[in-house]
TrEMBL record:
This is Glycosyltransferase. Keywords: Glycosyltransferase, Membrane, Plasmid, Transferase, Transmembrane, Transmembrane helix. It holds the Pfam family Glycos_transf_2. It is found in: Membrane. It comes from Sinorhizobium kummerowiae. It is an enzyme of class 2 (transferase). It is a multi-pass membrane protein. Its EC number is 2.4.-.-.
Length: 664
């Protein structure tokens, strides 16, 4: 009993530190971040010293198991290195909104005629009109003098219908004779036909808010700023949210990076361009010879090339655009594999972090693609260790006793999880985050390995979006891997429960059993992501505005480009299914009333009348449709996920896992 309490003491001390310290401090103050990250780093260093001196060095050279112990330790050391870099990075945080307010007042004090000219680049290859129209219309609506704003649609698909659409809206349609160097080559062609002082870049599926230029341009009063990057927000759910059934409970997968990591990188002056939703100084782009074409991630390489020349990237963490997240798993992996391969490619380039001139040692280290190189290997080994032990009896370390293991491993896990809860209170849950990483491992680890061997072996591939993007209904490849690991792990446990077939014995068996059980739970959650859900092409926004339907007053509760949902307080009988809808700012719309629904228990504030919901469908054309695009997508509305309801997420996942298991 006493030994057990002593083993738990370090973990309890870690918990006490967070309860008495960080959980009562502001997570955005530099001193609190430095103290907390230093504390966690000390716990991690204590663990690694124990691992090396007590569980690796004492292990006898007895053949294959000896090399397995060293291999596991090397992988763990790589994970430790990544964690240390993460802790250093997250020990700073900067919010530039107040600075942006001050700079905006100064910048726009000048005469309108003195404002700089801006070219908006929209590179496109195969995106359909239902994706492109929002971006083009939104870019043309930017709040900037019209004689100083030009929108260039850089069409590598060379489509006549797109040229016609651009001419009808006032955008400039640009093509070239070939598609050399993919997106980077396309934008370099745009440089040749344009002359603006600044270049804003939006991928074909991102719509800028009208205030985008007012908030970003003022930062360029500092002549050393080459690029200003803004976060990427989305008006649809990503496939992780959708397939796990967490659309309204769990934020999109990129929020951790854009909301937390990117501001910390900016605090260290190692922020980087993410391509879309950014704006660059033309003189800086010209100084590096245009957008680099050596890598398939031209945005990251543009940042490194500018750092070589003394230009910096700034990150303004404000929602200034909205776009399409990957709509299904095919698009999700096309996107991630491109990012991974591009990051690894920089290691081989003359202007990358290893060989690029003008970079400090700190910048070189912080631009190493450590996360891509390490995270998937670590997750794979975490799944493999209990299997190797249960089936072959191969220990991953020189094991003393459970108490020793708990007193060293426990504090590290507690420190890391509590740190993430503190740093990212609305963006992180250990079980879900681990399951998402595990799901990605089976496709991404081969990409990492192939990119190390043949970094330039795969060409640039566009992420499929919109109506031309055919959804997969089931990711059989990943599910097969996950199911295989579940079966092998579970059989390993069953074999060792029966004395006659048991292959292992000793104190580590209890830890291996717990480890295996956790792996199975994580794998089951990961397997849920493999089952695709149907998607909606035109996303609806929640709102609350007055509306008139054939003289009946109601409230708009949902609106998209093709449908409105109107709440009325009484059940209304209309003479026809064809109705006229009056929305503020629009001519009356002719709509089809296709459905009337009533939510159970939905009572108005007066408590005496139930609400009925009219589902109205319409077909907007021309400039009326453009007006609706501007209304919906340029800053008035957004799709927000509230703070994580940890209980709701857990219950939802358990119900889905149980239901999926029963029907399998």
């Amino acid at each position: 009993m006493v030994q057990s309490l002593l083993a738990l003491a370090p973990t309890l001390l870690v918990i006490a530190f967070f309860l008495l310290g960080p959980f009562n401090w502001s997570r955005h103050r530099s001193w609190s971040r430095v103290v907390t990250c230093a504390f966690v780093a000390a716990i991690a260093l204590r663990y690694m010293l124990w691992r090396f001196t007590e569980t690796v060095l004492p292990y006898p050279n007895d053949g294959a198991n000896f090399y397995w112990v060293w291999f596991v330790f090397i992988v763990e050391f790589l994970a430790f290195s990544e964690v240390v870099l993460f802790l250093i990075l997250m020990s700073r945080y900067v919010d530039r909104s107040a600075e942006g307010d001050r700079l905006e007042r100064q910048f726009f004090e000048r005469d309108e005629r003195e404002l700089p000219t801006v070219d908006v680049f929209i590179p496109t290859y195969n995106e359909p009109l239902d994706v492109l129209e929002r971006t083009i219309v939104g870019a043309l609506a930017l709040d900037h003098p019209k004689d100083k704003l030009k929108v260039y649609v850089l069409d590598d698909g060379r489509r006549d219908w797109l040229r016609t659409f651009c001419e009808g809206r006032g955008a400039i349609h640009v093509t070239r004779s070939d598609n050399a160097h993919a997106k980077a080559g396309n934008m370099n062609n745009g440089l040749r036909v344009s002359s603006g002082d600044f270049i804003a870049v939006f991928d074909a599926d991102f719509v800028p808010y009208r205030s985008f230029l007012r908030r970003t341009l003022p930062f360029f009063m500092d002549d050393t700023i080459g690029i200003v990057q803004t976060p990427q927000h989305f008006f649809n759910v990503d496939p992780i949210q959708s397939n796990l059934g967490l659309e309204n409970l769990w934020p999109d997968e990129q929020r951790l990076f854009f909301d937390e990591i990117a501001p910390s990188r900016d605090g260290w002056d190692v922020s980087f361009c993410c391509g879309s939703c950014s704006i660059a100084r033309r003189k800086a782009v010209d100084a590096i010879g245009g957008f680099p074409t050596e890598s398939i991630t031209e945005d990251l390489l543009t940042t490194l090339s500018m750092l070589n020349r003394g230009f910096k990237t700034r990150y303004l963490n404000e929602r200034l655009s909205m776009g399409l997240a990957a709509e299904n798993l095919t698009g999700y992996f096309v996107q991630r594999e491109r990012w991974c391969q591009g990051g690894i490619q920089t290691l081989y380039l003359h202007n990358g972090p290893l060989r690029g001139p003008g970079l400090s040692l700190f910048q070189r280290v912080m631009f190493l693609p450590m996360s891509w190189l390490v995270q998937y290997l670590v997750r794979f080994i975490v799944l493999l260790i209990p299997i190797i032990y249960l089936w072959f009896g191969a220990l991953p370390l020189y094991f003393t006793d459970v108490a020793d293991y708990v007193s060293n491993q426990g504090p590290l896990l507690a420190a890391y999880f509590l740190l993430m809860f503190w740093l990212t209170p609305t963006r992180y849950l250990p079980l879900v985050s681990t399951a998402v990483g595990t799901f990605s491992t089976f496709r991404m680890l081969p990409t990492v390995l192939s990119s190390l061997v043949r970094p330039f072996g795969k060409p640039f591939k566009v992420t499929p979006k919109g109506s031309s993007n055919e959804a997969n209904v089931f990711d059989a490849y990943t599910f097969t891997w996950i199911a295989g690991f579940i079966v092998v792990t579970a059989l390993g446990l069953l074999i060792n429960i029966v004395p006659e077939t048991a292959r292992v014995e000793g104190s580590f068996s209890a830890i291996a059993a717990l480890w295996s059980g956790l792996n199975i739970v994580v794998l089951i959650i990961a397997s849920l992501i493999c089952f695709e859900k149907p998607r909606r092409l035109l996303q609806a926004f929640k709102l609350d505005e007055p509306v008139d339907v054939d003289g009946v007053e109601g409230r708009l509760v949902s609106l998209s480009l093709d449908k409105a949902v109107v709440a009325v307080s009484t059940e209304t009988r209309f003479k026809s299914t064809k109705v006229r809808v009056k929305i503020e700012g629009f001519a009356p719309l002719e709509a089809d009333l296709r459905q009337v629904t009533q939510r159970r228990g939905d009572i108005t504030r007066t408590g005496d009348k139930q609400r009925y919901y009219l589902h109205l469908h319409y077909d907007l054309r021309g400039f009326e449709r453009d007006k609706m695009i501007i209304k919906l997508y340029t800053g008035r509305y957004s799709r927000d996920v509230p703070d994580i309801d940890k209980i709701a997420v857990s219950v939802n996942l358990l119900l889905r896992a149980f239901g999926r298991t029963r029907t399998a």
